[in-house]
Design a protein that fits this description.
It is a single chain. The chain has 13 helices and 10 strands. By secondary structure, it is an alpha/beta fold. The chain starts with a strand and ends with a helix.
Amino acid sequence: MTDFSASESTSFEPRQGSLTRPVMRALPELRELLILAEHVADAGWDWARVEVLAELHHGEESFPLLAFRFGPSDPALPALALFGGVHGLERIGTQVVTSYLRTLVEMARWDRVTRDMLSTTRLLIMPLVNPVGMYLKRRSNGNRVDLMRNAPVRAEGLSRWHLFAGHRISPALPWYQGQEDAPMEIEAQTLCDWVRRELFPARTALSIDVHSGYGKVDRLWFPFAKTRKPFPALAEAVALKHLIDKTHPNHVYCIEPQSRQYLAHGDLWDYLYDEYRTVRPDGRYIPFTLELGSWLWVKKNWSQAFSALGVFNPRLPHRVRRTLRRHLLLFELFYRAVRSPEPWTELDEAERERLRRQGLEWWYDG
């Protein structure tokens, strides 16, 4: 069972030496994050902060849940948030987010443009949400709960016994939501609390949660996973799609609501989006999920199909490098989109209705 020993977040202190040899061998992703955290702490930037949001324990091993914040401390400023490693088998998500984090830290050392952007806009990064699951090579966390099925949200029209969509039958089966009426898992609760604190006060915000394991193309999903009804901010989502299409016309993403592919119970981003709309009805926030198309990696290297990690991650070095650099432009575009949000947030009624109808025709059968 995974335990939680810190009720409040703490400022980061250099601590990569605290990892045991088994953890260092099994989790190079966590070791790299600790090295980056030390670099940020040593730089002494007053606009950068690293926190240990929670201390997770599995057996005798300890795992810090790290979060990075760049930019002013005012949480009302525009913000972009990046997440990875919600599912422990999907190591490539953490690696992609960490790749961007590494680039950002290096650019912040010397690039005036990066520092100028960070003077007015915030970047929030949690690269490894589920370190215990990654250590154990599980999709779930240490308690065998699927964190992306763990929020108190029920999908419309789905049975409680629908395994893939999330269930409460047994932790021995995948996609387990946890016990009925039990508190959310520590990792999920910590993520939600951090988003409420650091992102909810912002009137303009975007987030990307990086996953892998579905399809042969990279899909950029916006809510909902709980219903096939149109997304309330459909006009803004369409405007963002146009922004991406025109700025990077050769991009690789299939942009669509998640409900076009499947519904699921307990989606964290459905849960947080609904809450944001309640506390900030005048705000503009869209949480995206980047679902990397891992089936293509398996198709090109079929031996990966015989490995749990191989189904979700590229194995050949050149494919890993390609994946790590492939999404940096997307993150940069989203960062600029929250700093210059007018093209997708300041829509008059006629334009909003036009875009909404376009989205209905594309994704909701008119």
